[in-house]
Automatic annotation (TrEMBL):
Protein name: Transcriptional antiterminator
Annotated region described as Disordered, given as residue ranges: 58-77
Keywords: Repeat
Cross-referenced PANTHER family: CRYPTIC BETA-GLUCOSIDE BGL OPERON ANTITERMINATOR, TRANSCRIPTIONAL REGULATOR MANR
Occurrences of domain PRD (ranges): 294-400
InterPro entries associated with the record: BglG_antiterminators, PRD, PRD_sf, PTrfase/Anion_transptr, PTS_EIIA_type-2_dom, WH-like_DNA-bd_sf
Keyword ATP-binding attributed: no
Residue intervals of the PTS EIIA type-2 domain: 508-651
Length: 651
């Protein structure tokens, strides 16, 4: 556990890239500040005399050798490395290993090896493998496909956030497995060959494909090939099989059999993204029909139904034919991956959830509907891919809504004002829309009602709306305008949030301290029930809403930041929108992490539009660690909480 917390500490510092106090890190890890200091010492010892974690008056931050320390944490000799070596020995020895000889080879006692075997049993859930023990012999029983899934699980355990790391994969398969010199060219040529045939490749998914190819190459080299199914596969499948067989023999020196070709081709095809939407007219109609021909009718019906429900539930503009067909293609691939039990990791999951909580929640709603209609089990990484589809659609829909209006003030001199407007449109056209140009040296400043005023002369009064620029737009001018636009957008969002929150909070729905919540992430349900009871007492929700909130939590954790969880039910059935707040000091376990603030949100049918405002902006406030610590430390009662929250919002 200590090493895991050291790695978690290092991961937090690397991800944030800024100073963090010992108290903040302690809250995130559920330990004391004194423990943080000891973890920092241990992490730095991994790379001595280098510096993995810097210390200073502002706390700690990732040092120049942080990356080396991350890798050092998984080198040989660690319990994780020993576990993986033990699993490899079991997989490579069908007749079983001698426990005492293996303990000697790993330089541990037989009691330690018995404990490691117990950990191996813990890894076997859902793998169709069993660990048998007879006297001094231990052996794994199960199919070759199940054994490969176990190797895949170990490899993912080695890789941070699901990103592909060949060195981590070699630690799982053994240092004698195929190296970067072979796999670099293999992957490059595979993507190129697929691209030549008109397929756009999802690089995030292809990382998993390369991992499975590495596992297959390693197992085939040991004489452990998959048996072929003999099933007809179609022209595309056969073509990919030929490509993989050719590249594996040329780059990896491995001849794949029919079973491995079929298996790997299926994995490749389930990660191929359909071509982007064409321009218009008949081309668009042709593309739609081509996509529809590749989608099973059952999948298309399910996706169409769930997307229409999500569009109505969240008031989001996603019920478009192109979006439905693209998502249907993705879901069909997902269905095939589910049959192969070859889930696709997504290194963007954490950032998508923290940055776009509303979009992620729409994806959870869609995922739940697809699970009910198609029986597809979905994890956070797969939900994140759906969120990427949703986000792409919404980005197209709301880009115009985010534009701020601007007026240019540039006293006329030849065509100077025209050149300036052209420069502004070219450099800032995606952020602002120029709605007027004033060429008088004494314009009616009070009559200018645009969001921003970009002026080449000094305005008579100061204000955040006014941005001084040069007649010939410079890079510094562009940065100042973008900064002013960003401040204006954020100010408006937070002003709306303050107005909404003051309506939804109640002194009777505030709880500080959860002393009965122990080190068990399953106790998130007890926190939800505690907070939900305050809203039930007010007649806002009923017991069914609380149970549906717990069910939503089981689908995907609502810990959208390192400090905040926002549990809520699918379905806006509250009598009015209300928020129950829980403050935990110290932090409490929630999902895979820990949180200090829990905001149980009950949304009503009449407040649908408030969902996006409250949900995304509330999460934004609690994404800043300093703000969280200020609120948690000073919010001893409801009045203190509301005062600190308003102070943070007002900046």
């Amino acid at each position: 556990m200590t090493r895991a917390r050291q790695d978690r500490l290092l991961s937090l510092l690397v991800r944030d890239g800024d100073w963090s106090t010992a108290a903040t890190l302690a809250d995130a890890l559920g330990v004391t500040p004194r423990s943080i200091r000891s973890y920092v010492t241990a992490v730095n010892a991994r790379v001595a005399p280098g510096i993995a974690v810097e210390s200073g008056p502002h706390g700690y931050r990732a040092g120049p050798d942080a990356g080396t320390a991350v890798r050092a944490g998984t080198e040989s000799g660690t319990p994780r490395d020993r576990l993986h070596r033990l699993v490899r020995a079991l997989l490579e020895t069908p007749d079983g290993i001698d426990v005492f000889e293996t303990a000697d080879a790993l330089h541990v006692s037989s009691a330690t090896l018995d404990a490691d075997l117990a950990r191996v049993r813990g890894l076997l859930g859902g793998t169709d493998l069993t660990l048998e023990r007879s006297a001094s012999t231990a052996r794994l029983r199960g199919t070759e496909a199940a054994q490969r899934r176990l190797l895949s699980r170990l490899a993912h355990d080695e890789m941070d956030a699901g990103s592909f790391d060949l060195q981590a994969l070699r630690r799982t398969l053994g240092e004698e497995s195929v190296g970067q010199n072979a796999f670099g060219p293999f992957k490059t040529e595979l993507v190129s060959r697929l691209g030549e045939r008109g397929w756009f490749v999802n690089e995030l998914g292809m990382a998993d494909v390369v991992m499975h190819i590495a596992i297959a190459a390693d197992r085939v080299a040991q004489g452990r090939a998959l048996e072929g199914t003999g099933a007809a596969s179609g022209d595309s499948h056969a073509e990919v099989e030929r490509i993989l067989a050719e590249l594996a023999e040329r780059h990896l020196g491995v001849r794949l059999g029919a079973g491995d070709q079929q298996h790997l081709a299926t994995l490749v095809l389930t990660r191929i993204v359909a071509p982007g939407a064409p321009g218009s007219g008949s081309d668009l109609d042709t593309a739609r029909e081509g996509a529809r021909d590749r989608v099973e009718p059952e999948v298309e019906r399910a996706v169409r139904s769930v997307v229409q429900q999500a569009a109505a539930e969240f008031l989001v503009d996603i019920a478009h034919e192109d979006f439905i067909l693209r998502l249907a293609l993705h879901v069909q691939n997902l269905r095939l991956r589910a049959r192969e039990q070859a889930w696709s990791r997504n290194p963007l999951t954490r950032s998508l959830k923290a940055t776009y909580p509303m979009i992620f929640d729409v994806a959870v709603f869609i995922a739940n509907g697809l699970h009910e209609q198609l029986g597809i089990p979905l994890m956070d990484d797969e939900i994140a891919y759906i969120a990427m589809h949703v986000g792409g659609r919404l980005e197209r829909s709301r880009r115009a809504d985010q534009l701020l209006t601007a007026t240019i003030v540039c006293p006329g001199y030849y065509e100077l004002h025209e050149l300036l407007r052209s420069s502004v449109d070219r450099s800032l056209g995606q952020a602002i829309e120029v709605v007027g140009v004033e060429t008088r040296v004494d314009p009616d400043w009070a009559a200018i009602d645009s969001d921003l005023v970009l002026t080449t002369i000094d305005p008579p009064m100061p204000g955040d709306r006014f941005v001084r620029i040069q007649p010939f737009l410079t890079d510094a001018d562009v940065e100042r305008v973008q900064a002013a636009a960003g401040r204006l957008r954020r100010g408006r969002r937070l002003a709306r949030l303050r107005t909404e929150l003051e309506r939804y909070f109640s002194p009777d729905a505030f709880v500080r301290g959860f002393a009965d919540v122990h080190e068990d992430a399953g106790n998130a349900a007890s926190v939800i029930r505690r907070l939900g009871a305050t809203l039930v007492a007010q007649g806002v929700i009923d017991e069914d809403y609380i149970e549906r909130t717990i069910q939503r939590e089981e689908l995907s954790s609502t810990a959208f930041t390192d400090a905040l969880a926002v549990p809520h039910a699918i379905g806006m059935t509250a009598t009015r929108t209300a928020i129950a707040i829980g403050i935990a000091d110290p932090s409490i376990p929630w999902g895979d992490g820990r949180v200090q603030v829990v905001a149980l949100v009950a949304f009503s049918e009449t407040d649908r539009e408030a969902f996006q405002t409250v949900f995304e902006q509330f999460v934004e406030v609690f994404s800043e660690r300093d703000s969280v610590q200020r609120i948690v430390r000073r919010a001893v009662d409801f009045g203190g909480f509301l005062d600190e929250l308003v102070a943070v919002i007002d900046g």
